[in-house]
Amino acid sequence: MTMQEKGNISIHTENIFPIIKKFLYSDHEIFLRELVSNAVDASQKIKRLAAIGEYAGELGELKVKVAFDKEAKTITISDAGLGMTADEIKKYINQIAFSGATEFVEKYKDKGDEKAIIGHFGLGFYSAFMVAERVDIISQSYQENTQPVKWTCDGSTEFEITEATREGRGTDIVLHVAEDSVEFLEEFRIKQVLDKYCKFLPIEIEFQEKVINNPTPIWAKSPSDLTDEDYLKFYEELYPYSEKPLFWIHLNVDYPFNLTGILYFPKVKNELQLSREKIQLYSRQVFITDEVKDVVPEFLMLLHGVIDSPDIPLNVSRSFLQADGNVKKINSYITKKVADKLGELFKADRVGFEEKFDNIGLFVKYGMISDDKFYERAKDYCLFQNVDNKFFTLNEYAEFVQENQTDKDGNVTYLYASDVKGQDGFIQSAKKRGYDVLKLDTVLDNHFINMLESKLVKTNLKRVDADTIEKLIDKGIAVDTILSDSEKETVKKVFEEVINDTTKVVNLEAMPADEMPALITQNEFMRRMSDMSRMGGGGMGMFGAMPNNYIVSVNANHSSISKILHTADAEEQKKLAKQIYDLALLAQNMLTGADLTAFIQRTAVNL
């Protein structure tokens, strides 16, 4: 008896296909991912049935083959998987609400890991109509005494099922490509989509007689079976032109959610680079997206690598993450794993950790700023580096400066430089007092400093050029001045005339005679607010708009200042004051252009 059946697909609206075509998927190329994934699922299912004794036939080669015929305008996806009978096609393909996987899992859930064999028949299959004007399914079920069948649908709700011929078990999906999608009839375009979505599918995918995927990527293997070389080779496979990573973390958890993956720490210096090599998100080795901001904490977005989880909820097209409890748990798990790994590295090889801290520090500081739980874990291995390149943990440093850098009110001051070369004069001044100076010169350090002050008790941080050294750490010991009040006023007027700048306030200060004759400083609070505003600190726009104000502290006890007072000629006084002021500008890297040239020439003449 010849089989021929026509019917209507049981869906609730005549307009389902235009909706699928326009809205269901964010990108039309997804059709190939869905159809190849379905073919892989069907192949894995037959493997599973054979493993549990439900299928006794020869498995044979389980490759999924993708082919195209430009002249005939067809793309064909073939597998040697379960196959379908006419009744199964009617059930799984026509009744859109059902998924073949649901029944399959229900039937075999007590015989193994059902999560590994869930298929995606149903809506995934219908993505074919985004690019095809007609779709044929030719299928031969694995079950004995069943006939090959052909299902045809032209994108309306009508279908036809007829007898067919097919060599062996499995399914061919034949897409008759529509005029608006002929781009997918080019070899390079199909290869591009397969490379993007199917590169690590667990069954071999053949295209143009070549296997295009790696079915056993290293994240699916046990860490104990892998060498450092394996991890480095895989990194090169993911990011062919990148420098070697610093180290990596192999994620592997099956409770309370399933997650595997490898996260690599790349070499990142001072810039918060918006990296093109993002973390890739997979679901059972099918590529989903590289937009992982909900799954991975923001401070780890600079990491590279792969995360694979069947438990990350996706919408019907698998294209977007939806923030729910599982995603939050995964986010917390990744944070903890990274924190623990860094702690292990620090304990195992502190010297190596210090050598890498230029790169690691960016992640550690970013994490401590943005996540309190990470701060609690990382505070034990976050390192301070001083200007002499010695490293300290936060606790070690507190102990190191406690005695010498506590002011008269019992507050500890950490001095820091943001430009070691440019602030050298101020650093030397601090060192004369036996003070230590930290190097905090990365793009994150403004925020890091503010965060530390909010966490550390009776501790503040001041940039080494924020004031005279006596005021930075006020020990309550007054230095006497050798000038009278009227002499101070005379000197102040000379400097004000020479400087002639309303953004600079001249103060005569009693400083040790061996200090510089004049220092230019900027108030720590105002400078910090201004810096953060320029970096985009919320609500600080008013500080960014204000001019930078400076204090010119003239050392009343310096011999050069006495020289000004003992010179009767007003022009000579100004000339001396100008030299002193230029020297102060030079110390702050504020002497540029013609002024710098003139200064060098004057100095050369004087020498």
Automatic annotation (TrEMBL):
Pfam family for this entry, one: HATPase_c_3
Domain of life from the UniProt record: Bacteria
Residues that, per the record, bind ATP: E34, N38, D79, M84, S99, G100, T171, R318
Keywords carried by this UniProt record: ATP-binding, Chaperone, Cytoplasm, Nucleotide-binding, Stress response
GO function terms (MF aspect): ATP binding; ATP hydrolysis activity; ATP-dependent protein folding chaperone; unfolded protein binding
Residues in the signal sequence: none
Record InterPro entries: HATPase_C_sf, Heat_shock_protein_90_CS, HSP90_C, Hsp90_fam, Hsp90_N, Ribosomal_Su5_D2-typ_SF
Family in the record: Belongs to the heat shock protein 90 family.
Classification via PANTHER family: HEAT SHOCK PROTEIN 90 FAMILY MEMBER
Protein name: Chaperone protein HtpG
Species annotation: Arcicella aurantiaca
